[in-house]
Amino acid sequence: MLCSACVQLLFAQSSKSPDSDLARLMRQIGEAQRHSDEAAIISLADEAKQLLGPRAGVPDAAAKMRRVPPDVPPPTAAEIAEGFKPYERAILRRKWWRIGDDPTRSEHPLRDTASVVLGCTFACRAECSDESEIRSTAKSAADYLIWAQEQAGRGLFPFPARRDGNQRAFVVSERFLLKAEAVGRLDEVVHNGWLVDDLGDGGLQYDNGVCGVAVLEFYRLTHEAKYLESARRAADWAASQPVVPNWNYNSFSVYLLAELARETGDEKYLRAAVKKAQLGIYPGQLTEGEHRGRWFDPHNAAIDYHYILVRSLVSLAAALKDDSHDRQNVIDSLLLALRARDPEFTSEEIPDVESAIEALVLLQLYFPYSTKTVGQAHQAEALRAVSSYCVAKVRAGGLPVAPGAWGLYLYYARTTVSK
Predict the structure, then answer these.
(1) What is the tens place of the pLDDT at every residue in 151-191?
(2) How many CA atoms lie within 13 A of 42 on its CB side?
(3) Alpha carbons 95 and 163: distance in angstroms, whole number
(4) Can you tell me the mean pLDDT for 258-280?
(5) Can you tell me the mean pLDDT for 345-354?
(6) What is the pLDDT of residue 1?
(7) What are phi and psi of 67, to 5 degrees?
(8) C-alpha angle with apex 240: 183 to 184, nearest 5 degrees?
């Protein structure tokens, strides 16, 4: 849920590390964001970029590289029809969600269940076989998400308040719980065994955003009103949350708000998405230098977070009208981001693929002629590389990405082949 750097920013009183000046600037950016002071945010972000110098845009650690097999043909219509079966079998073997279970004993954050909803929903749209069984699984998982949302009682999709989980997200959330307990605020952040308040850290935007989009996508498939209402509640919570200096956290809310605006035409969600991007995405992006287009801090410079941010920009650009001044701002940021990283997918080895394939497929679905409407950034070559890697892995019996990413790819692949 909460990144360790942000937990430290929330609770640490002082820092003796060499990066204490950066931590101070990030706290000041957060304060300016709480006051919606865009000029101060930009000024402080520029100061942080200068402080980092050549380290600006350089990740904490190098990305894990994956070899792309040569000459991987795209999936046939028959392969697409059968393409979700390996995931379906794995999901049914491990089915972990059950309404009424104690969240403090959960092994999975809600983002995992949201991925099941998304994967199954897109597999249905891709006309995969066993459609009724896949739809039933999606409904079961979506109903569990709504139950958890109701248990939280505040509109958001919460995070399990588990103290001894093995996933990294649980390790960090446990650290957050211990800190909240130490300062006497545990009752504020936990309700019915769920984390419902991140005390301004912003980490709860992650699961809330992906779960909100998941139930919205299931609504698009079924047209059942309860899923749209659930997405609205999540978006209303997201709109009410302060922008934070961890840029990718804000992007989860931008993604949900933009998708709901596209679905409903409700301008309040679009305005909230635009404002969060202005205060919580654009200022962190480098616009000059060797790493222009990346986000300056080491955490968000990592390629997986980079494409999480790209995904939100794609969605926001698609939600805005062509002649909107705000849309041009989004397109400018999106093109910078694509040009910063897409060329890394043009060699025999490519970096992390999951967030990249989601963002690049979404770009292709929303902007089929993106080289004309967005600009040339090697996006076709990048998508071809990540697709080839994933298709080859699935053909070999692997599950290279989460269900949501693979279902989305199958849906895109269906649009590119004749039936």
Answers:
(1) 999 999 999 999 988 888 999 899 999 999 999 999 999 99
(2) 7
(3) 22
(4) 98
(5) 91
(6) 58
(7) -80, 130
(8) 10
* Torsional class of 199: left (φ above 0), alpha (ψ -120 to 50), beta (otherwise): left
- End-to-end Cα, the chain, rounded Å: 41
Angle (CA) 12-304-72 rounded to 5° is: 165
Write down how long the chain is.
419
Q: How far is CA 78 from CA 86, 143, 418, in A?
A: 15, 31, 11
Instruction: Quote the pLDDT of residue 12.
Output: 42
- 182: Cα separation from own chain's centroid: 30
**Is 90 exceeded by the pLDDT of residue 419?**
no
Check if the beta carbon of residue 45 is closer than 8 Å to that of residue 283.
Answer: yes
Predicted TM-score of the model (pTM): 0.94
pLDDT tens by residue, 93-139: 999 999 999 999 999 999 999 999 999 999 999 999 999 999 999 99
Instruction: Using alpha carbons, list the distances in angstroms from residue 391 to 32, 91, 114, 307, 406.
Output: 45, 19, 22, 20, 9
Q: Which two tokens stand for residue 103?
A: 């969240």
Between residues 1 and 13, the one the model is more confident about: 1
